[in-house]
């Protein structure tokens, strides 16, 4: 698994004089698994690499958001054999929420 980017949205907002609750986007994936998905259907690239959004609400509660494998399966008509390539997002999201 490769972390391709960590986008600190709240940090960037601060740099331009704006206040935003903590909001970060993790962009990650496996080049081997992702390429297999994209080769089968290039339109899947819109949702790859995988992403997890970690954000804080008005009450200070931290949330972890992501597109579930079931959602991506339905959106892109993924065959069961390729679903395992994106299932890791749920494990990583659970760990991020700890």
What is the count of structural domains? 1
Described by strand count, sense and barrel closure, the largest sheet is: 4 strands, antiparallel
Share of residues in strands: 25-35%
Q: How does the helix and strand content classify structurally?
A: alpha+beta
Helix content: 25-40%
Q: So, CATH architecture?
A: 2-Layer Sandwich
> Which fold name is given in CATH as the topology?
TATA-Binding Protein
Please provide the ordered H/E string of secondary-structure elements.
EHEHEEHHH
Q: Count the strands?
A: 4
Number of continuous helical runs:
5
Poorly predicted segments: none
What strand order characterises the main sheet? 1-2-3-4
Could you say which overall geometry the principal axes of the C-alpha atoms support? elongated
Summed over residues and divided by their number, the pLDDT gives a mean of: 92
């Amino acid at each position: 698994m490769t972390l391709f980017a960590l986008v600190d949205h709240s940090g960037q907002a601060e740099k331009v004089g704006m206040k935003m609750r903590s909001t970060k986007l993790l962009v990650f994936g496996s080049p081997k698994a992702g390429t297999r998905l994209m080769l089968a259907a290039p339109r899947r690239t819109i949702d790859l690499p995988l992403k997890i959004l970690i954000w804080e609400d008005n009450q200070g509660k931290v949330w972890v958001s992501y597109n579930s494998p079931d959602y991506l399966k339905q959106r892109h008509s993924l065959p069961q054999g390729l679903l395992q390539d994106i299932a890791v997002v749920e494990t990583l999201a659970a760990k991020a929420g700890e």
